[in-house]
Amino acid sequence: MSSSKCTIPPFPSANNFNRTSEFLLNNIKESMKFFNPDKCTDPEGGFFHFYDEAGHLFDTNVRKFVTEARFVFTYAVAFKWLGEEKYKKAVKHGVNSLRDTKKFRNEANGAYFWELKDGQPTDKKILTYAISFALLAYSKAVECGLTEALPYVRETYDLMEAHLWSEQYGLYAEEADEHWQLTDYRSQSGNLHTCEAMIAAYEATRDKLYLERALLIAENICIRQAGLAKGLVWEHYNEDWSAQIDFELDDPSLIIFRPWGFQPGHQVEWARFLLTLHAHAPAMWMVPKARYLFDTAVKAAADPEHGGLAYSFDLQGGHEDVRLEASGHWDKVFWVQNEALGTAAMLAVETGEEAYWRWYDRQWEYAWQHFVDHRHGSWRRRMSRENVPEFSEKTHNPKCVDPDYHILGGFNGALDWIKMEEKRKAAALPQ
Q1: Number of structural domains in the chain
Q2: What torsion, rounded to 10 degrees, do the Cα atoms 265, 124, 103, 159 define?
Q3: Residue 59 lies in a domain
Q4: Is pTM, for the whole model, over 0.70?
Q5: Is the dihedral of CA 337, 113, 394, 256 positive or negative?
Q6: Which uninterrupted H or E stretch holds 358?
Q7: Which residue, 79, 160, 275, 291, is the most exposed by fewest CB within 10 angstroms?
Q8: What is the pLDDT of residues 237-266, one digit of tens each?
Q9: What is the phi/psi pair of residue 58, to 5°?
Q10: Any idea what the Cα angle at residue 195 is, between residues 72 and 226, rounded to 5°?
Q11: Which of 51, 30, 137 lies closest to 94 in space, CA to CA?
Q12: What amino acid positions are annotated as catalytic residues?
């Protein structure tokens, strides 16, 4: 299906170069070559969202709140590692768009519209998933030095506290109508990204309020809720936080946000956040749990015939459940692959075990061959089991609304750990 053929350069594994910070920084640069803020910034506010394989804009009518907030995150991480002022400028531009009451901001209730079409909201429901990305965006903006975003961090925390937080369960509800009336649906995914945002808020402000909330969410999901589903994190829950095994999606526009089955990408994301939390507030359960989530997920998701990681698997670790068929259980989705790469590198450094590096090497060779777009930059988005692209666009409504948030997020974690290891090794050399 891909229209662009190019020679794949040799995989740069000599002297373990693919295990270095320079290698990952080169990949971030290639990502930003595609999602360059000079190209993606809309002078009227926010960012253009939908690009084809080569980077040509093809839809200016639809805007997704999550995409808008993810652009802010992506450019903030790019600024952290690449240091170019254009990324900081793009972060500021993106924050202004998130605050604009003529765009995504719902002035009536303080929340955010999930989607705009021709400048108008298509729905007024409130999703924790969306608000968590607002908190993440504001936090990363503060980390970049944009102090004007500091009050937005606490404002967003307070908004969620007032309307979505459950003291009884120690987790956030997922969905409400425009008047903050909660539905009975509960989700790990909204809590996962809220945990991520709380970590970012703590790292930006050093206010332990956010760290303590991140720790509580992580423990309640990864220990208590995972205990209901063989130690892994299930996606969907009822109002009392019992596992909703018979979940059926009632809104096709949320297909990539509410898939059925175990999501290996979410298991390895949780592992990444646990390692990050352990660095801030060590606890004896975190690294073992991170290892369990990662090890179990990549084993169950591994495709022995065609390589890479499957999108999802069922309660028995298989891929044949009829409910998985609808969501493309054997599909290979880019973010699952790169999130696993980032977490594998972190585990390799954290544990000192060569087995994680060997897995990382194999996974990188697969991604280098099938996902990395060596011609245009960034990664191809979604493949069949046989590694045939399902579509050529880099951003696609509704199956991919990610301006490389996952690539920058996964590699940001890996870079932090690899840089730490490189400094340790340099210090150990004879002076």
Answers
A1: 1
A2: -70
A3: yes
A4: yes
A5: positive
A6: helix 354-370
A7: 291
A8: 999 999 999 888 888 888 788 988 899 999
A9: -130, -5
A10: 140
A11: 137
A12: 266, 406
